[in-house]
Amino acid sequence: MGANVIVTAIVIIYLLLMLWIGWYSSTKISTNTDFLVAGRRLGPLLMAGTLAATEIGGGSSLGVVQNGMSGFGLSAAWYIITMGIAFVILSFIAPRFRAATVKTVPEYFRRRYGKSCGIITAVIMLLPLVGLTAGQFIASAVILSTMLGIDYQVAVIIVAVVVTVYSIMGGLWSVTLTDFVQVFLIVIGMIIAVPFALRYAGGWDNVTTNIPAGTLNMFQGYDLFGIISLVIMYTATFSVGQEAVSRFYAARDEKAAKGGAWLAALINFIYAFVPTILGIITLALINMGKFSTDQFAKVGARYALPILAINTMPAIVCGFLFAGIISATMSSSDSDLLGAGSIFSNDIYKAVLKPDASSQSVMRVTKIVMCLVGVASMLIALFNTQSIVSILMFCFTLRAAGSFFPYVMGHYWKKASPAGTIASLIAGTIVVVYLEHVSKGILFGIKFSQPIIPGLVAAFICFIIFSFAMPPRIETTELAPEEDD
């Protein structure tokens, strides 16, 4: 009982700290630009912390541990390593993103390709953010329910309320500062857990003798094509996902945007093997008989990491680990919430419904939408039991496929046209939804593990063909002017 009190106290203090940071950040907000892009004042260190924390979420903690213990072995690390590779690639185009001085991705589409493209992009990007937020709520609630012994549904409600409140209070300032704290909790909390788990297993040699042959093979779960597919998926979605690309918009300058991407990549490379090793140790413990598969039968393999922690670590270490894992999931869900609110207020409310809306009015609508998305995501999390990684994968793919080429090439190619952009958005979305929900990944007799590949190919072909067939009235990469409040 005493141990449980210590663990619970640590996590409660952490949750209260997040709320305090939200309040503190709210004192720094005076305009909509402050709220949406932190006044464009982030240096490379804050950039790196918030970028890494945003993308290291439920899939990268609970999901990778689950994969590490259930067939992927050491190759589960590719899920996070490929994120780092994507950040390296993005570092070369991040300065262009910052130079555009927009607040959202749909705003770029609107000012580059026209109002219709902005609206279509806003809708395509808004809906997946709800799914992404729900996925992170699920992961956070898994930890709370296991740790406190409370009902999963109650845990979902607690997580949803805390994240939504501190995100609404301070906008991107709040999200950035909480992310900066959270990324250290994530990495350090998980690293500290490894030696305790190893000691419980009797050392690394004991682990290796109790795992199947091939578990330590980096290519057991992913072949080269699978790895390349992940790199492409992450590069595409980090380029156009509001929760990630808003960090580049918020950078102090182009140099800070580039440096932040490199540092975020480094954090991913370091972190990648930590949850993977914890998953492998859990597998060894099951094979040794120290864990029973019955422990997972009731709650599911997604609870592997919490059960490992409870059984192998002192209360104070367990508390910090739980705070770290909750950090991982909360630091992603707050960004998804802000992304959804930003897109609706900036690109639907102000751009379409009320063009003369004041900065304060737009900021108020952002907060209202964040609250609504928080509630919707909470409801989805309450009743959704799918694999965390699967939910995130589909959401990533859906919004990235059609918008990637018009967005990235729009910064460089003067002939990119509105017609090509609309064709790309429609084609990419249709192909991804078809593969995911109709054909079960099969297209022209070929089985695709990642719908992102054929989705991007279809989008690229349509983008090029329609841009040449229906060229822009003026060939330029410059954006139409828009007031920046």
UniProtKB/TrEMBL annotation:
> Per the record, what is one GO cellular component?
plasma membrane
Q: How does it sit in the membrane?
A: Multi-pass membrane protein
Can you name this protein?
Na+/solute symporter
Q: Which GO terms describe its molecular function?
A: transmembrane transporter activity
Family label? Belongs to the sodium:solute symporter (SSF) (TC 2.A.21) family.
- What parts of the sequence cross the membrane? 6-24, 45-64, 76-97, 118-144, 150-173, 180-201, 221-240, 261-286, 306-328, 365-383, 422-446, 452-470
Keyword list, A-Z: Cell membrane, Membrane, Transmembrane, Transmembrane helix, Transport
Native source organism of the sequence: Lacrimispora saccharolytica (strain ATCC 35040 / DSM 2544 / NRCC 2533 / WM1)
Q: Name one Pfam family in it.
A: SSF
Q: Which GO terms describe its biological process?
A: carboxylic acid transport
Query: Where is it localised?
Result: Membrane
InterPro entries this protein is in? Na/Glc_symporter_sf, Na/solute_symporter, Na/solute_symporter_CS, Sodium:Solute_Symporter
